[in-house]
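Please produce the structure of this protein holding protoporphyrin IX containing FE.
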Amino acid sequence: MNILDIAMRYVHIASAILAVGGMVYVLTCLLPSMRLVDETFRAALLELANRRFTRLLHLAIVGLLVSGIYNWIRLADTYKAMGAAGNALIGTKVLIALAMFVIAWGRAIGLIREGKPRLWLMVNIHLAAVVILLAVVLRFYRLAYLASA
Ligand code: HEM
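Below is the modeled complex.
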């Protein structure tokens, strides 16, 4: 364990909190509150909030990618030694995480059409819940393997 390991773990967890917390806030608080705002202001307000949140989300995705790849490289030998379960858990976690990034970036660059913001937020929040669960199981399983090895 060195200082870079600690820093990368911090970046990974902080970025996940930023991305997932932000999406949950937009879906459950910001969008429903917008119904109270006059229609003439609503579009402009949402456009500004969306532009600012997209910047934060991109920062979080870069943080997750850099720290995630670093963690994966550091732990690759252990996952290999854990056998099929270790590889399946990390592989599924990364695949689902990449699907989340494609949705977030696809919406930002217009690859996925605007409209239905709730649907895409809902999809990404559920994917995030699965990724976090896989991370918890993977960590638990890895530590149990190391304790028994
Ligand atoms: C390409 C993207 C990603 C890669 C390569 C990656 C890789 C990793 C790795 C290798 C670990 C360590 C697991 C272990 O302890 O054995 C980890 C932990 C974790 N990841 Fe990711 N991850 C990615 C994206 C995400 C995303 C999108 C989220 C959140 C939605 C996330 C949430 C977490 C959490 C909460 C942990 C546990 C942190 C800890 O206990 O230290 N990851 N990730």
